[in-house]
Amino acid sequence: MQLTIISFKNDDMGGMTHGAVYIGTSENGIDYFYTKNGSYTAPTIMSLDQLIEIYGNDFQYWKLQEDYPDNESEQESNEDDS
């Protein structure tokens, strides 16, 4: 089983500001994520574009696989460096 998460960064805050779990891509190519935006909000499903509007476009995908020893992960960089 493979799990993909996305982490957003903000240099002003000194590290990761938000994480979300990838749940799939729609037929029209939109990526969707399970996310919880803050302590007092309910979990929700948002598109990547919606998350970028809130947290910015400095993000990375992380693929975690059940068969990795000791929960190691492999990292994919965001190709959109703008």
Task: Note the main attributes of this structure.
82 residues; mainly beta; 6-stranded antiparallel sheet; 1 helix; 10% helix; 50% strand; globular
Put the structure in a nutshell:
The chain has 82 residues and is mainly beta. The chain contains 1 helix and 6 strands, in the order E-E-E-E-H-E-E. The protein has a 6-stranded antiparallel β-sheet, covered by helices on one side.
Description:
By secondary structure, this protein is mainly beta. It has one domain (2-77). Helices cover 10% and strands 50% of the residues. It contains one helix and six strands, in the order ββββαββ. The protein has one helix at 48-55; strands at residues 2-10, 15-25, 31-35, 44-47, 59-65, 73-77. It has a six-stranded antiparallel beta sheet with strand order 4-3-2-1-5-6, covered by helices on one side.
